[in-house]
Design goal:
The protein has 463 residues and is α/β, with parallel strands linked by helices. The chain is built from 15 helices and 16 strands. A five-stranded parallel beta sheet has the order 5-4-3-10-11, with helices on both faces. Helix 6 crosses helix 7 (244-259). Bound molecules: adenosine monophosphate and zinc ion.
């Protein structure tokens, strides 16, 4: 059952095969800009990328995953104007740009853990790779792709006939309609490779370069770090859909200019999470952090479940009702899984595994894979087989089904006391008393199941 993925570069569904047969799959995913907390929209994209990675592993591939941390150079406007988001964040918080980078990188890593996202093999900071970015720009300069303005070194997009192919950009239209002030730029689509520190004020983050003191543009970090860790041409590059027209378009332009490849074989994008049918953006001031969900009592994995209910190539509207429904779905799945007897000697059901693979290999159709999981739980397969099958599915879902335990406080003290009395009766081989206590528990609405490692208490009638 081949793995088929949607590649935005060719705008087509393509069968995936690693560039190096049998070798590691190179995966680069654009990481967070750490001037603030990430919002749950950002996490929808990181969860899509995690799903992709888990599906690659499911298909027997080994994966080398690189993610960058943008801690410099991402300006408040994609048109290379405005302030560096990091410097702005520093002013907002009264901390240094370096301090907020460390603070929000840590917060990102905490959230990733809470969402059960497998961390990247390489998490690389832009500020740790300034020499590589300078070397990249020097190479572009030698090849005649750059020019200088009073505020920086720019990439001349008119040098590439196929500039903007990923986004199918209408370049003639963009040029004709460039009523917006493009300053000293030669073409509307040209972008900064290196920005000079403003005269008269000191930036917190700045470096010496052959062109003067300053800082790298946002796009060059990804081209430079991707090349450094994954080579000139690797398997898959991902980000959110907003990256298509500018960030990824420019990454491709730079790398094509330097080494002649489009950087990655597949370009995949996660579509947006909307809030009240509108774009969710950090820059809009008001946004939902994962912490806000936790404060309201939601398990972060309920958000993961919610994301699995929508295909990554459709936008998903966030509402509290939708999150409630996801939380209920997750709770039911956990309880149902937990109630199934574990038997290490039992193999998963091959037919169900095949149906599951068919779903996820169809461009990561998680909603359909979830439906297969529910059919498995409701179907007539023996319970231990159900459990073994679900445990395999969860390698892809990442819902932590096997790790989940009912909250202890949900079991009343009196019920716990009856259960412990029954354990003692069984130890003393007082079977009549053990049966009597089981009956008493049953009457109180609880089912007690003996397990090798103790016992399990389940409210009666609940899955
Ligand atoms: P940033 O921290 O802004 O660099 O964004 C981190 C990731 O989140 C990028 O891949 C963005 O494309 C993605 N992203 C931004 N906003 C959203 C959204 N509302 N829904 C889904 N992904 C988003
Ligand atoms: Zn990037």
């Amino acid at each position: 059952m081949p793995l088929v993925l949607y590649d935005n570069y060719t705008r087509s569904l393509r069968e995936f095969a690693p560039l190096r047969p049998g070798g590691e799959v190179g995966l680069y995913t654009c990481g967070p800009t750490v001037y603030d907390y990430q919002h749950i929209g950002n996490y929808r994209t990181f969860l899509f990328e995690d799903l992709l990675k888990r599906v690659l592993l499911w298909n027997g591939h080994r994966v080398r995953h690189v993610m960058n941390i943008t801690d410099v150079g991402h300006l408040t406007s994609d048109a290379d104007t405005g302030e560096d988001k990091m410097e702005k964040g520093a002013r907002r918080t009264g901390k240094s740009a370096w301090e907020i980078a460390a603070l929000y990188t840590r917060a990102f890593q905490d959230d990733i853990r809470a969402l059960n996202i497998v961390p990247a093999d390489v998490l690389s900071r832009a500020t740790d790779h300034i020499p590589e970015q300078i070397a990249f720009i020097e190479d572009l300069e030698r090849r005649g792709y750059t020019y200088r303005t009073s505020d920086g070194i720019y990439f001349d997009t008119s040098r590439q006939a196929d500039y903007g192919y990923l986004a199918r950009l209408d370049r003639a239209g963009l040029e004709a309609g460039k009523r917006v002030d493009i300053g000293e730029k030669r073409n509307a689509t040209d972008f900064a490779l290196w920005k000079f520190s403003p005269t008269g004020s000191t930036r917190q983050m700045e470096w010496a370069s052959p062109w003067g003191k300053g800082f790298p543009g946002w796009h060059i970090e990804c081209s430079a770090m991707a090349q450094q860790y994954l080579g000139d041409y690797f398997d898959i590059h991902c980000g959110g859909e907003d990256h298509i027209p500018v960030h990824h378009t420019n990454e491709i332009a730079q790398t094509e200019a330097r080494v002649g490849t489009r950087l990655a074989n597949f370009w995949m994008h996660g579509y947006f999470l909307l809030a009240n049918d509108a774009k969710m953006a950090k820059s809009a001031g008001e946004f939902l952090r994962l912490g806000a969900l936790i404060e309201r009592g939601y398990d972060p994995l309920a958000f993961r479940y919610l994301c699995l209910t929508g295909h990554y190539r459709t936008q998903l509207n966030f509402t509290w009702d939708a999150l409630d429904a996801a939380a209920t779905g997750l709770a039911r799945m956990r309880a149902a899984f937990h109630a199934l007897p574990a038997d290490a000697g039992v193999a998963p059901d091959e037919d169900l595994l095949a149906r599951f693979t068919e779903s996820i290999n169809d461009d990561l159709n998680a909603p359909r894979a979830l439906a297969v999981a529910w059919e498995t739980l409701r179907g007539g397969t023996p319970d231990a087989v159900k459990r073994a099958t679900l445990a395999r599915f969860d390698e892809v879902f990442g819902l932590g089904l096997a790790d989940w335990r009912p909250k202890q406080e949900e079991i009343p003290d009196a019920i716990r006391a009856l259960a412990q009395a029954r354990v003692a009766a069984r130890k003393a081989k007082n079977w009549a008393e053990a049966d009597r206590l089981r009956g008493e528990l049953h009457a109180a609405g609880w089912e007690m199941e003996d397990r090798p490692d103790g016992y399990l208490l389940k409210p009666r009638g609940k899955a």
